[in-house]
Design a protein that fits this description.
Blueprint lengths: L9 H14 L3 H30 L1 H7 L1
């Protein structure tokens, strides 16, 4: 499986280490889950925006058809 190297400052790395220890998980698992959440959130926001545009423009689209 391809990998990805991500650089953190010493402070960020320490915070990540503390979070992983507190949750009883690996640092890699914490970072991976954060990236997956960020990707999912972006997709969700895009879908909401597209639905809003379709809703707002529905009347105009009906009249143009």
């Amino acid at each position: 499986m391809p990998g990805l190297n991500v650089r953190f400052s010493e402070e960020e790395l320490e915070l990540l280490r503390e979070r992983a220890e507190a949750e009883g998980r690996s640092m890699q698992a914490i970072a991976h889950d954060a990236v997956v959440r960020a990707i999912s959130e972006r997709s969700r926001l895009f879908e909401e925006a597209a639905a809003h545009v379709l809703s707002v423009s529905a009347e105009l689209n009906r009249r143009l058809a």
